[in-house]
Write a structure and sequence with these properties.
about 325 residues
C-alpha cells in the first residue's frame, strides 16, 4: 500500500471512532437518568411569580406555620384588660371592694374650697355739717365658681343709717378675668326696703381696671343699674393711689326712694393708701358726690345739698 493511501485510511478511522463521543449530551448527569423517563423542563420566572401571587390570594394554600400570627401581628381583640396590680400591703387584709373605693378616691381628689373676706372701705367722711360714714365689702367661698355675699351702706353721725343693702349672689366664671353674678339684693335702712333680682358682671378689664356692673329689678317692677370702676396706680411697693368712680341710674322716677329717672347720682373718690401689709392698708382721700336730674330736685326739696364734698379716712383689709 502506498503511503498516501495509508494516511487517508487512518484519518477516516479516527473520525468514525470520535462520533459517539460528540453525540453525548452536554449535561454530565444525563447519563444517570433512567432509560425511558422524560425529565420536566425547569420552571420559568413568570410561572414562579404566578404561583406566589396565587398563594398570597389564597391563604389556605399556605402552611399552618406560615399563617399563624403572634405578638403584635395579631388583630386587636375585645377582651377586657387585666386588673391593675397594686403593690399595697393593705390589700392582703381589707376587702377588695373597699380597696377599690379607696383607690378611686385617691385618683379623683375632692375640689378644694377657698374663701376670702374683703372690706374695701370702712371710712369716716368729714364734711360740712354732720360727718358721715360708709362701708363696702364682700365675702366669697368656692373654687372657680363662687357664692358671694356683698354689703354696702352709708349714714350720718347722729342721724343713723341713710341707705344700705345686702346681696347674695352666685358667681359663674366666664374666663380667668370675668364672672357672671346672679342673685338677690335686699335693701336695709329707713328707706323703703325693696327686694331686687340682680344680674351683673364683675372682673378686670384691660390695663388692670377693676369693673363691676349690675342690673336690678325690684319686686315693684322698678329697674335700676350701677356701674363701678377703679384703678390701682402703684407709686411705690407700698404706696398706692386709687381713683374710683361710680354711677347710679334708674329707668323711672321712684319718689319713695327720692330717686329720679336717668342718671341719679355720680361719685368720685381719690384715695391714697399705704400697704402696711398686703392684707391691711389705711388710706386718706377726697370724695365728691353729685345728684343729677330729678334726684337733685328731691335733695333740694329735702333741704340737702345735691353736691357733697368730703375728706375721707379709713382702712382696707382682707383675710
Amino acid at each position: 500500500m502506498r503511503p498516501a493511501s495509508m494516511s487517508m485510511a487512518i484519518t477516516a478511522g479516527l473520525l468514525v471512532s470520535a462520533q459517539p463521543v460528540l453525540a453525548q449530551p452536554a449535561d454530565p448527569h444525563a447519563g444517570h437518568h433512567m432509560h425511558g423517563m422524560a425529565m420536566p423542563a425547569p420552571a420559568s420566572s413568570k410561572q414562579l411569580s404566578n404561583e406566589s401571587a396565587t398563594q398570597q390570594a389564597d391563604p389556605g394554600t399556605q402552611t399552618t406555620a406560615e399563617t399563624e400570627l403572634t405578638g403584635t401581628d395579631q388583630p386587636p381583640g375585645s377582651a377586657e384588660s387585666p386588673p391593675a396590680v397594686h403593690d399595697n400591703p393593705a390589700a392582703r387584709y381589707w376587702d377588695p371592694a373597699a380597696m377599690a373605693a379607696a383607690a378611686a378616691a385617691e385618683m379623683h381628689s375632692p375640689t378644694p374650697v377657698y374663701s376670702k373676706l374683703i372690706v374695701d372701705a370702712a371710712e369716716l367722711r368729714i364734711r360740712e355739717g354732720r360727718d358721715g360714714y360708709r362701708w363696702e365689702g364682700e365675702f366669697w367661698a368656692g373654687n372657680v365658681d363662687r357664692f358671694v355675699v356683698k354689703t354696702r351702706g352709708e349714714g350720718t353721725r347722729g342721724e343713723g343709717l341713710e341707705s344700705g343693702e345686702v346681696q347674695a349672689l352666685y358667681a359663674k366664671a366666664l374666663d380667668p378675668w370675668w364672672n357672671l353674678q346672679v342673685g338677690v339684693r335686699q335693701d336695709i335702712g329707713p328707706q323703703p326696703r325693696r327686694t331686687w333680682a340682680t344680674v351683673g358682671l364683675d372682673g378686670r378689664a384691660r390695663y388692670q381696671f377693676d369693673v363691676q356692673t349690675a342690673l336690678f329689678l325690684s319686686d315693684k317692677g322698678q329697674l335700676a343699674a350701677r356701674l363701678e370702676g377703679s384703678y390701682d396706680l402703684r407709686i411705690t411697693q407700698r404706696l398706692v393711689f386709687q381713683p374710683r368712680a361710680e354711677l347710679e341710674l334708674s329707668a323711672q322716677d321712684m319718689p319713695a326712694e327720692r330717686i329720679g329717672a336717668g342718671l341719679s347720682t355720680a361719685e368720685l373718690d381719690l384715695r391714697l393708701r399705704y400697704d402696711v401689709r398686703r392684707e391691711f392698708s389705711p388710706y386718706i382721700g377726697i370724695n365728691w358726690t353729685w345728684a343729677a336730674g330729678k334726684t337733685a330736685q328731691y335733695a333740694r326739696a329735702d333741704g340737702r345739698d345735691p353736691v357733697e364734698r368730703s375728706v375721707i379716712a379709713g382702712i382696707r383689709f382682707w383675710f
